[in-house]
Amino acid sequence: MSLSNRPKTSILDKPLSKGKGEVSLSCFALLFSEVVQYSQNKSSTVPELQNRLHSLGYNVGSKIIDLYFVRERNAKREIKLLNILLFIKSTLWKALFGREAEKLEHSNDDENTYYLMEKEPLVNKFISVPRDKGSLNCAIFIAGIIESVLTGTGFAAKVTAHWHKGTTYMVKFDESVVARDKQLEDK
Amino acid sequence: MSRSSSRIDTKKVNSELVTLTYGALVAQMIKDLDNADDVSKQLERLGYNMGIRIVEDFLSKTGSGRCLDLKDTADKVQMAFKMYLGVQPNVANWSAAGDEFSFILDSNPLTELVELPDDLKNLKYCNIICGVLRGALEMVHLDVQSWIVQDQLKGDSNTEIRLKFIRRLEDSIPAGED
């Protein structure tokens, strides 16, 4: 076997695209529908299906981190908790979905928890949830993206999606992350 | 035919969202199935499911009528590529009998940011497109076969998707009513 059939130009030799390309929404909606169906066929319970969608989103998120920080932020990462949340709410949301997420709130009861709200996530636009699967929210896919971006930039968190005022993403940071952020503030 | 062409397809999404979602799906399938050939087959099937639904979207948005011949079909599919993927392929390499031709893509949003590892060189990453073509055309009574001839992910200069007309399908009784 020879090694000569490796392509001469690798993906890293090409300039980074501007990311302005567009495809039709129908195309994405049908693809996402297949993603959900495929995941459903592979799982027997709703939580299992949610986990699968979450982990697919997680994979998407991990690719986005470098892409967006290089493109939008001159390769500079965020070190403050609030800033990374704002980065997700505005920059990332705008790039991915064409608009900012609607609301970002800090929980009153738990200082480690934040809520990101969106009336109608793009992925849920054409999805009607069957009665017997009432708790299923396919935006868990997007929760996976958020979790991956936060975790990958050093803000370990768990992110879940819930039906509340549309869809609410609950971001629960690891205690150590919040403690570190406080130290940063004290300086 | 009353709709003006300016109203054709309105909503768009960022192509990277599609690229990455598709990439995550393929990666997951490889984990689940563990065999590149099975993944290629499954991708074709997913595409087929998308195709049988996308054709309605296409017909309602363009209001296009019947095709007179395969050339006509090729033109319409070319238009559909532009509508859905935002890229316009060339139609080329017609067979002498006129029942076979290729779509040639210079770029393809599905493969942006994608690199195939050496151990997956026989994966047909874009097989989903072949499936979409088969599904969509079946819904307008054309039985076709579609496969990938050249693939940019494997070092070819462009991606070539071949389409072969098999036969015209007759009206069939809807499933469950026989």
UniProtKB/TrEMBL annotation, chain A:
SUPFAM superfamilies: Ligand-binding domain in the NO signalling and Golgi transport
Source superkingdom: Eukaryota
Keyword terms: Endoplasmic reticulum, ER-Golgi transport, Golgi apparatus, Transport
Main location: endoplasmic reticulum
Keyword Oxidoreductase: no
One Pfam family recorded for the sequence: TRAPP
Compartments, record wording: Endoplasmic reticulum; Golgi apparatus, cis-Golgi network
Function: May play a role in vesicular transport from endoplasmic reticulum to Golgi.
Annotated family: Belongs to the TRAPP small subunits family. BET3 subfamily.
SUBUNIT field: Part of the multisubunit TRAPP (transport protein particle) complex.
Protein name per the record: Trafficking protein particle complex subunit 5
Species per Swiss-Prot/TrEMBL record: Nicrophorus vespilloides
Lineage, opening ranks: Eukaryota, Metazoa, Ecdysozoa, Arthropoda, Hexapoda
Protein encoded by which gene: LOC108561241
From TrEMBL, chain B:
Top-rank lineage group of the source organism: Eukaryota
One matching Pfam family: TRAPP
InterPro entries cross-referenced by the UniProt entry: Bet3 (IPR016721), NO_sig/Golgi_transp_ligand-bd (IPR024096), TRAPP_component (IPR007194)
Principal place of residence: endoplasmic reticulum
Localisation: Endoplasmic reticulum; Golgi apparatus, cis-Golgi network
UniProt family annotation: Belongs to the TRAPP small subunits family. BET3 subfamily.
Protein name according to UniProt: Trafficking protein particle complex subunit
Taxonomic path: Eukaryota, Metazoa, Ecdysozoa, Arthropoda, Hexapoda
